[in-house]
Structure formats: structure tokens, C-alpha cells
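Reviewers of the previous submission asked for a worked example of the structure-prediction workflow described in the proposal, so we include one complete record here. The input consisted solely of the amino acid sequence. No template or homolog information was supplied to the procedure at any stage.
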Amino acid sequence: MPRPLILASSSLGKLREFAAFFQDHIPGWTLHLKPAELEVEETGTTFVENARLKATTVAKTLGEWTLADDSGLSVQALNGAPGIHSARYAATDAARIERLLKEMEGIPNRQATFHCALALADTQGQVRVQVEGVCEGEILTQPRGEGGFGYDPLFWVPEVGLTFAEMSPAQKAEIGHRGRALQALKEQLLMLGTALG
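From that input alone, the workflow returned the following C-alpha cells.
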């Protein structure tokens, strides 16, 4: 009988990515989005703090195992912005891309890093696993690709010569920040094994 796992998010895009990974690599869980009305104020100053905050709050409220991700884009020339405010940088994906392009106008240094922090909390709200994943890349001057979501069309990864939005889901899962964090999560879960009872 699969055990329910709440994803502390309202993003269908994230749910698809996580559910596909779990199905292939960490079977035995059924993922669900948190109820939309259950909002968690992200008061942390780092991706890790916000992931822990979301995981513990949702787990305690619902009494279910909860996985929270806090991820975002840090641009070197913008002193790490949008960073933990990536999702709140503007109202929509298109507006976020437009704002980032405007802020980057005329800036030669395009270095950027996508970060992902994951926290897994048990039914009591105790964080049992915490991992991070990063992917280095550059910000393009215009969007490329139709896939993905968020800043994916602007984030170009030199090692493969593609933006996140141009990659197949399998490629993104392998080299993307979330994919790397999920691989680390898988290793931690395998090590913990039955201790997660």
C-alpha cells in the first residue's frame, strides 16, 4: 500500500517532476499537492530554512509525511537576486522573465546558479532528511525553448548547450538543481530505509 506524501507546493509543474522521479526511483509513495488554502509564510533567509519551514508546518497541520522544496535562481551580477524571492519576483512566469531580462540589460556577467533545497518531515513535523542540489549556468538575452516552467527558458547550461526549457525531462532530471537534490534525497532515503517507519 503506497504511503501518501504531501508536496508542500501548489505548483503542478513541480508535482509532475517530483511524481515522475518518485515513480521511477523511490516507489512506495503517492504524491499529492498541499491544499491551496494552506499557506506557509516563507520567513527564512535561505532556501534550506524555507524548505524546513514549509515541510514542518504542512506535516504538523495535515499529520502526513511532507516533502518541501525551496528553489530559485541566484544571479551573480544581481548580488544573488532574485534568490529566495524567485517565485515572488513578479506575478507570472512571463513577467518574471521580462523583469530579469530588464535587470540584466547591458550586464556582461551572465553567471547564475539554480538552487534547490529539499526537506522531508514526518507526520509529527520532524525533519528527517535535508538535502541540496545546484546547477551552474548563464542567463541568456532572450528565452529559448518551450518546455519547463519559471525561468527555464533563460537558464542556459554550457555543459550541454541547452536551456532548461530545451532539455528533455530526463536531461533536466539528471543535471538540473531539482534532479540533483532528488538524487541526494534518494540516497538519504535508501540509507535511512526502515528507520522511516
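The first strand starts at residue 3 and ends at 7. We consider this example representative of the routine output the project will generate in years two and three.
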